[in-house]
């Protein structure tokens, strides 16, 4: 019943439609790859001709979409066994759930048949997050936690020293001092764009460290608790008073553009941002950033754990060719290809393979953020990031199927509060009603 309910939830969420992206033709060995339109993925598409050249007879067709659209399209296709895609980009939110549902190919046999792929080289926490019953069901392309990027030059000019372990209270104070509307520089950039994987990711880490939780151990919704309210008011007020213009529609990409163009003094987000910040071809602030741990309040840590990864839907027609492509895009040699082609080690997908951090050229190029990235991933532990026990897996998300819908609905309320359309109390009251419905469904099966 739980699996059926989850599937129904997925289908209701994606009523916007999932038009066919092109099926594998009879005998033409065209692999259709659904991918998120982030910078590192765009690099992979640009390099994909090398894979086709090395594998005559196999051609690649990419369906590249913004994050929210990609999630909906991939989820609908995989859940309904639509067969549109041979390879899908998913995360550690979907992988264990979809594996349990039988929607994904078990990659264990494919990995065992290719020992040079060396799955033991993956960072353990990243590998484990993509596994089910001891076997991997997706292979990571890049891994991340979250941290705070800050302009060292602006901090120095303002006479501010970033602490080794900042608190959110301190960050709000710094944002107020550094906010310079006359020069078009926001004190901080924070996501406000609706989406369970957009604004809800950074916001939930703030809620965690404020001592809040989505549900208590008995699945009672807690979105109107004093702790959750304090976190929501803090986040909304900070981004409204000292955040970027148009914050209610700003996500990872929008904040990335603002920060790299010198329009924000701080940016709290995924550690993968650092590669773009330090890319001379895209950034005006190369070498000007420091990277601090995710700010805390009541907990030891507050960074998240996330990975974009590649998986094979159970109904894919050419699983052997699909894994061959996935291995090409996630093996040890891929980082060398990126660095050689683009002449910049900062464009290498981070946070996945231990061997990447043993490459002298990468260590030198990423010296500002390599260790903070690894530290963030190591500290991304639910026991460190949350003040109270919770009945669900996940740090920046609630690891249940209903969260795609619930999280998106709550994020819409949060975004409306950031835009000034409703109050925080109104947003949380409505959000609590959504969460109670989900919580009751779990209470009924306990």
From TrEMBL:
Key words, A-Z: Signal
Signal sequence segment: 1-21
Gene3D superfamilies: Periplasmic binding protein-like II
PROSITE patterns reported in the protein's UniProt record: PROKAR_LIPOPROTEIN (PS51257)
PANTHER family (alphabetical): ARABINOSE-BINDING PROTEIN-RELATED, DIACETYLCHITOBIOSE BINDING PROTEIN DASA
Protein name: Sugar ABC transporter periplasmic protein
Protein's organism: Amycolatopsis japonica
Gene: smoE
């Amino acid at each position: 019943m739980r699996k059926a309910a989850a599937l129904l939830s997925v289908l209701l969420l994606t009523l916007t439609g999932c038009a066919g992206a092109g099926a594998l033709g009879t005998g033409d060995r065209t692999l259709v790859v659904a991918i998120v339109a982030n910078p590192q993925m765009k690099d992979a598409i640009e390099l994909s001709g090398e894979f086709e050249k090395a594998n005559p007879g196999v051609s690649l067709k990419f369906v590249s979409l913004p994050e929210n659209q990609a999630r909906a399209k991939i989820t609908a296709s995989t859940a309904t066994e639509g067969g549109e895609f041979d390879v899908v980009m998913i995360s550690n939110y979907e992988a264990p759930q979809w594996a349990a549902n039988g929607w994904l190919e078990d990659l264990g046999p494919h990995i065992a048949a290719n020992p040079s792929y060396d799955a033991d080289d993956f960072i353990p926490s990243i590998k484990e997050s993509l596994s089910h019953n001891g076997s991997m069901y997706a292979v990571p392309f890049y891994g991340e936690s979250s941290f705070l990027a800050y302009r060292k030059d602006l901090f120095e000019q303002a006479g501010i020293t970033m602490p080794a372990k900042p608190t959110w209270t301190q960050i709000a104070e710094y944002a107020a001092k550094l906010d310079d509307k006359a020069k078009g520089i926001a004190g901080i950039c924070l996501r406000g764009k609706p989406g369970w994987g957009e604004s809800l990711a950074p916001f939930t880490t703030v809620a965690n460290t404020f001592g809040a939780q989505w549900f208590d151990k008995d699945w009672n919704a807690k979105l109107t608790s004093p702790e959750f309210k304090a976190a929501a008011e803090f986040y909304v007020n900070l981004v409204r008073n000292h955040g970027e213009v148009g914050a209610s529609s700003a996500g990872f990409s929008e904040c990335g553009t603002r920060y790299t163009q010198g329009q924000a003094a701080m940016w709290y987000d995924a550690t993968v941002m650092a590669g773009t910040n330090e890319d001379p071809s895209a950034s005006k602030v190369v070498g000007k950033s420091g990277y601090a741990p995710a700010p805390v309040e009541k907990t030891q840590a507050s960074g998240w754990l996330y990975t974009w990864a590649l998986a094979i839907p159970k109904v894919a027609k050419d699983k052997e060719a699909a894994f061959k492509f996935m291995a090409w895009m996630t093996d040890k040699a891929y980082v060398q290809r990126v660095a050689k082609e683009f002449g910049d080690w900062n464009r290498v997908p981070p946070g996945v393979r231990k061997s990447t951090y043993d490459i002298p050229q990468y260590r030198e190029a990423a010296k500002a953020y390599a260790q903070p990235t690894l530290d963030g991933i190591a500290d991304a532990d639910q026991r460190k990031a949350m003040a109270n026990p919770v009945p669900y897996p996940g740090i920046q998300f609630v690891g249940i199927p209903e969260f795609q819908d619930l999280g998106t609905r709550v994020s819409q309320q949060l975004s409306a509060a950031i835009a000034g359309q409703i109050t925080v109390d109104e947003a949380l009251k409505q959000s609590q009603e959504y969460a109670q419905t989900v919580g009751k469904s779990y209470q009924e099966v306990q």
